[in-house]
Amino acid sequence: MRGRNLLSIADLSAREVDDVLTQAMALKDGADGPALAGKTLALVFEKPSLRTRVSFHVAMKQLGGDCIYLSPPEVGLGQRETPADVARVLSRYVHCIAARTFEQETVAELAAHAGIPVINALSDHEHPCQALADLLTVREKKGALPGVTLAYIGDGNNVANSLALAAGITGMHFRISSPTGYGIPEAVAVRAKALAAASGGSVEEASTPEEAVSGADVVYTDVWASMGQEREAAVRREDFAAFCVDEALMALARSDAIFMHDLPAHRGEEVTDQVMDGPQSVVFDQAENRMHAQKGLLALILGEEE
Known about the structure:
alpha/beta
């Protein structure tokens, strides 16, 4: 994987996903990682961030490298300077770019013109680094990925897209329940189902949250209105009213099911406090695993070949 881009979780094969997770778990357990001394990661962000910014920064530092954060006003992607020119300049200074952008096309343009690896740190279409952390968390809690049933309740957004594809790659069973008109895009569903057919997994659209959650090993939700959709928030709250993960819904999952959320959470909307803070919740383990998963990824992309 040395020198590779990661724009979509589907850029990785099942073997490569396993390699990232295995490396991440080893580093989390205290194994020595590849020394990235002299390597610098540039964080180019168009959106605010807590977990993504801090986890990448700390991950790079713990691997012995350096990290520089470039805020939206400093770069002005597409306004002050084109993504292509930003990529060409940064390629002369740093060894990798992690970009958090409004549009997938922006991170794709960075990758097309950079002479260094580009990582999608979130776009409107996908969140592959979150998916890697989610897979790491499920593997830790359930022991393996193949055959695990993950029920996703809510908006078919970037996180849902990456989860559906990740489930297809790894042989998980992915069920999603969304209000009419809010499901994952047809193209993503088709690709995820094709990946699942090859891996022994499945990807299904459930008609109700109850159908999706019934017997599930993992229950996952996300905010109803993502960044950039604030004007739709009132309408979405009404449309998603029946899609809150509460104790009654969790009771339909397996007794040992875990609850996951990529954060930040809008408590009282997509999830209740009782579930968020309850014994089945692993959301803060999941948040921690952003750092470990990204350490595994950076080690393989930037580490020297043995």
